[in-house]
Amino acid sequence: MVIDISSHRISQAAMQSDLALLRLLQLASPTLPVGAYSYSEALETLISTGKIADIEELESWLRQELSTGAVRMEAAVMLRGYQAVQAQDLAVIAHWHHWLSAARETEELRWQSWQMGLALFRLLQALHPEQADFFTQLYEGCDRTCNFAIAFALAAALWEIDPESALLGYCQSWLTNLIGAGVKLIPLGQTAGQKLLMGMQVPLITSTQEIQGLTDTQLVSCSWGLSLASMNHETEYSRLFRS
User: Fold this and answer.
1) Is the model's pLDDT at 7 over the cut of 60?
2) CA-to-CA dists, residue 36 to 8, 19, 176, 236, angstroms
3) Spatial contact of 163 and 155, defined as CB atoms under 8 Å apart
4) HSE-up of residue 110 (Cα within 13 Å, Cβ side)
5) CA 96/CA 149 separation, integer angstroms
6) What pLDDT, in 10s, does the model give residues 133-145?
7) Angle at which helices 90-103 and 132-141 cross, to 10°
């Protein structure tokens, strides 16, 4: 019997679409070796001091951060970095890197972003040796540091992930990491964590749609509570997560 496989051939467009999806899943995966799992972004302080004690309070905190917190600003910078990488505009990439570094309210949050960003940057260097010259120039232009939002933008642009999907992936990876921290710290069951993740999908989509429309003058955040908790994290009696 002869089997006709012509109908199963994948078009070039379909192949590119599938590759972009797989690369987005890889980029947003908790297994991405950037050390995100080792940070709680001050959740450990908030939980240990009783500010967040259950799943309802964790959900309220996450919704607040998506609507007014620093992650909203970071995601908007990621989009601008994506556009600059596509244009190969090293000056604009460096501008947004330095801008985001200056916008960090605590040393702890700045170092988290730099550590994760450099880890992803070095991974991309290993995966894309053909881009060595561009990587070197970008690294020097950013004063040998790299915020995670910029490194994420670099990966998304190189892997031809469309910007809207990259934005969703960036926010989803942030959300997944913090829910994972909450599961360990409150503690919550794994099923409760997954229910929370599903329940946050609509707010996540709404926030990403709003982020796409932000102008440069609207890149602000209200996260003084997060900043105070972040600064106090290193004084915790015991810690599961890094400051």
Assistant:
1) no
2) 39, 24, 10, 20
3) no
4) 13
5) 10
6) 999 999 999 999 9
7) 40
How many angstroms separate the first and last alpha carbons of the chain? 64
Angstrom distance (rounded) from CA 45 to CA 229: 6
> Which residue's entry shows tokens 């990403």?
208
Span 156-214, pLDDT tens digits: 999 999 999 999 999 999 999 999 999 999 999 999 999 999 999 999 999 999 999 99
The residue written with tokens 């947003």 in the block is 28
Is the confidence at residue 1, as pLDDT, over 70? no
Q: Give per-residue pLDDT as tens, 16-61.
A: 999 999 999 999 999 999 999 999 999 999 999 999 999 999 999 9
User: Can you give the chain as a three-state secondary structure string?
Assistant: CCCCCHHHCCCHHHHHHHHHHHHHHHHHCCCCCCCHHHECCCHHHHHHCCCCCCHHHHHHHHHHHHHHCHHHHHHHHHHHHHHHHHCCCHHHHHHHHHHHHHHCCCHHHHHHHHHHHHHHHHHHHHHCHHHHHHHHHHHHHCCCCCCHHHHHHHHHHHCCCCHHHHHHHHHHHHHHHHHHHHHHHCCCCHHHHHHHHHHCHHHHHHHHHHHHCCCHHHCCCCCHHHHHHHHHHHHCCCCCCEC
Nearest to residue 145, comparing CAs of 102, 115, 170?
A: 115
The model's pTM: 0.93
CA distance 141 to 90: 7
